[in-house]
Amino acid sequence: MTKTRSLCFLILxxxxxxxxAALAHVEIDVPAAVDVGAPFFxxxxxxxxxxxLHLRWLDRQVRVPAIEGxxxxxxxxxxxxxxxxxxxxxxxxxxxxxxxxxxxVDVRPRSFPEQRLRVARKMVTPDPSLMPHIEEERRQxxxxxxxxxxxxxxxxxxTRPVAxxxxxxxGLRRFFNDEPRAPHRGVDLRGAEGTSVLAFSAGEVILTGExxxxxxxxxxxxxxxxxxxxxxxxxxxxxxxxxVSAGQVIGKIGATGRVTGPHLHFGLSVLGMWVDPLxxxx
Length: 282
Ligand SMILES: [Zn+2]
What we know:
Layout: H1 2-23, E1 26-29, E2 33-35, E3 39-46, E4 50-57, E5 60-65, E6 70-76, E7 84-94, E8 97-108, E9 114-117, H2 121-124, H3 131-145, E10 166-168, E11 173-176, E12 179-180, E13 187-189, E14 196-198, E15 203-211, E16 215-223, E17 226-236, E18 243-244, E19 249-253, E20 264-270, E21 273-275
Parallel strand pairs: 2-8, 9-11
Antiparallel strand pairs: 1-3, 3-6, 4-5, 4-7, 7-8, 10-13, 11-12, 13-20, 14-19, 15-16, 15-18, 16-17, 17-19, 17-20, 20-21
Bound molecules: zinc ion.
Residues 168, 184, 186, 188, 265 line the site of zinc ion.
């Protein structure tokens, strides 16, 4: 019994020794703490033959390919995350080995401001006959946001879709006609009707349409689970399946859907979870 135990211990010690020896050539860069709602990068570098890594974050899984010894991914802490320690569990593909690692990220609570609006009743409570149509739009948007393409199209620096300042921040706790609604899942940027809206980064247009609440909408898949949303447009200048470059005009600012005036609502989703795009823009 004792012999088996010490043998097990030896194997474990050897495994630990080999993984830490291999990990000596690996740099894993991730913030120790982030706020609720914040996006953050995880960067892994290795001088050895590093082909990529597998990650698990908040029950989502993704493989990040390494390019010239570096793997980079954007992650985030969504609004409904429980503050506290959360684990990023990963496995590096180095030479022909798999090396496991765990990184802890401390998610700090953040309080978001409140906003009360008066809006037309039909926009708060749509006609029941429209519900199947609205549900179908939601299903399409959900599917777009949950896409995790294997290739990274995005790159830094990112493009601010319009130059205008923020009129409504991410995370705002909203009440329409005193009824609590979902928190604000993007940022509203100021701009006159007809102002050009630019792609945040390179990617593929995976959904366009005129939706009941969102009005004219564009969704772009930038790869590795990063999807951006541009809504309430007056005009859409791209088509489904089109590849766009960073800063390309994709539409014009408008006031379509459930809005009180022209602006761009810009949303950023990471592995299917909305996060605040503002920290990524100038
Ligand atoms: Zn908005």
